[in-house]
What does this fold into?
Amino acid sequence: MLKPRFHIKQVMPFVLLLLLILLSIDGAAQCNFSISGTINEEHTNEKLDFASLQILELNIITTTDSVGNFQFKNLCKGFYTLAYTHPGCKTEYQKINLEKNETLQLHLHHNEIDLNEVTIAQHKRESAPTQQVETLKDQTLFETRGMNLGDALKTLSGVSALKTGATIAKPVIHGMTGNRILLVSNGVRLESQQWGSEHAPEIDAYLAKKITVIKGASAIRYGSDAIGGVILIDPEALPSKPGIGAEFNYAVGSVNGQNDFSFLLQGNAKKQPAFSWRTQGTYRFGGNVHSPNYFQKNTGFNEGNGSVALGWKKEKYGFELFGSYFNTKIGILSAAHTGSLADLEAAIHASQPKESAEFSYTIGRPYQKVQHILSKLHSYLNTKKGVFALDITYQYNIRDEYDKYPPRNNTLAALNHPALRLEIQTITGEFSWEKKVKQWQNLAGAQFFTQTNSYKYGYLIPAFWNFAGGLFTVERWSNKKMEVELGARIDYRWTQAILVERGKKREPIYQYIIPTASLGLDYHITEKLKYNANIGLAWRAPSMSELFISGLHHSTATVEIGDEQLKAEQSLSITTGITYRNQWLHADVSLYSHLFKNYIYGKPDTQPILTIRGYFPVLRYVQTDAAISGSDINLAVFPIRQLELSAKASLLWAVNLKTKDWLEQMPSQRFNYSIRYTINGTKDFSNLYLALSVVHVLRQNLLPKNYADYLPAPKAYWLLNFDCGTTIPIKNQKISVGFTIQNMLNKTYREYMNRFRYFTDEPGINVMARIKIPLFFH
Amino acid sequence: MKRSNKLTMGIALLALTLVGIQSCKKEPVANSENEVITTLQVVASDSASGLPAGVFTFKDLDGDKPTPPSVFDTIKLSPNKTYTVSLIVLDESKNPIDSTSVQIAEEADDHLFFFESTPASLVNVSIQDKDSKNLPVGLLSKWTTGPAGSGTTKITLRHQPGVKNGTYNPGDTDVEVTFNTRIQ
It folds into this structure.
């Protein structure tokens, strides 16, 4: 019988906050004012229906009716910012000092689009309203600058990170990572060696203007592998206003001497308004990471990225051509590469890593060097029959792994080859059709995918070819009260591996034909209370490493063995949640359950293997039925307008249904509490905020019986963080600055989801600063 | 045909062409030049007479992979005798066979062998060769056997580039073989 083990002491702060919330729900007086009005098109003066409006401070949204009227009721006195937009328009803002009922006449300007045409191609990868979604954008995104993608997303509930040392972090949604979640960069699904737990995503976080996390099965729209969810890294749309814009970002961090430089330059030609362009580049580097008692030797990194986008946007058709290059060199903690089990055990039981170090930016062996080229051509055609779009993408990823020691043979060593090089090239294409008819939004499409992988210098996973194709449709019906979404998809996948064993070649083929479907509901119970539910099927083919891996994994001193007979994983995700917004309280509570058939994981074997370096334990990839369930909770209370008290909880229980025991390698329960004080606008600065937060992570006790681990799961820990920042208007530009202290008390701790927890403590105190300077020239 | 339809067709054709190019099968590049140590040979000769006494081998051709060693000899020596032992380390996965012991000898400053006898009275090993800093290496040693008995002899090769100081601790293990040993 499984019992989730909580100590009441650990959840007490959370319970107290819950009580505080329940007491405060009992509203306040003086809250019966309204803001109403109409929105018209600037040029034609036509009334705009289904325009959306949002009061930013209260996070409440409404839409205009068929004659362009809107109304917000039951508002309290105060300062508000009203954001309003309509498809094809840039969002406009209106500041309101609400002291009595207000009636507004608002206008919006459409870019080059004739209102008589049926529908506008909205950005296809828009967030799914019936699923659990979290976003980082504007201020919340700016506050993560300087962090890598995995660490930046950790602040969202339900999202954590699987780390390999301090610099390599893979995002984890509801306990799932690697091939179970998809990263989509500017509309392109990232294809690299994502099966590797030590392989960080090859994405420049500075490319993003918005990062969206969709939690739960999202296979219909994105294809196979989107079992745990999808992370969308979206840049801003190319500019449509004439002139040249720029943005400079700079960030520093003290724990590893990190410096980030990022620039962006974009423009729209005045003489040719259809043409716009953007170029962007980032250079970041860091040195050895400092833990409270020592420096971690060889943990520096060096990253340089760049991208170019060209767009041609006319009312009836358009193109966008995008290309990006990502290049990183990441040092791997020296102490983590051991030669034998005895060496590993000595490293684990050492009070600090065997090799001591000073601070240095030098990256020596062992290290990873990864390059990624991503390009896409997006084209669309706007007709009375709907919007047709064609997307073609090409990616090339080269991953080099350099071992701790160069070859003994001097001629060979002089060549400076990596111990392993993996090269993977992927071409994808999507043809889609989208059309809005009254309350129905129809979307249908076909996707194809072709991929080739090869290796050089050493062997870890075989070379292979992959072909896949899919057909999908999504139907969305909406009215003012609710949205219902139905999706269906069928995929075909063909994979051929090329194995060379003792001079003989073997080429096994794997084929899959798998249908998936989803059904979702988003329902506005009242203006303040919303309910959503989603049920979806998803699947993924076993990765080449799960099928064929055969060899020693240095940092775990374990020989991993795949199983060629593994079948595809299939999952059913059920997520449901409520969202409540009023003056005093913002609450998001969601529950989820991901049920798996043929869940693949590495299981420790009883028989060790003998090699010339002695005995090593063995891990075999096996399948089981599993259930990963949990709850993501976000609560925020505003006792006065400027003060926000918030609490987040990410709770997860993962069960191996066949053994009726817990499933290992899952994040433990974690909580985040914060107090934030905001001083709104004065002449010299706006949105000055100060925040103090506590991250509390419980010990991972939910582990299978008789689970053999080199070290027991680390103790529970809590960290104190401080954040502050403001926006300074200079002439017409708004400069944002931010200052953060992470792990302010310089605590020594280890995290269960860090594969290097056997060798080193987590980083100590990190003082970070960041600045963003946007510029615009006419 | 309307211009916009021609455009769509052109793009679709481009897409199909790209698929076509991709389907030209590429041979995967599959060469493994990495150095692997596959074999440890213990070559013993009688110190007094100089006559060969035996060659005891551990051979595991696939390195770190799961296939068990193909040869794993038991060391058999006579009691109360002294033997001159030289160690040969090979990479037999390459053609021609690569002699790692030659490279170890060239980089003697980075390598150190350790010998552990269980029980301790079974065999007493004394390293004969030295590196440029007068620290022991272990490719050449003298083994003095005790009375008849059986046990194990563990031979460990420590790779200690830049950190060798004569002790076990620095560096990493490249070879660790525990031979069953019979003195009879």
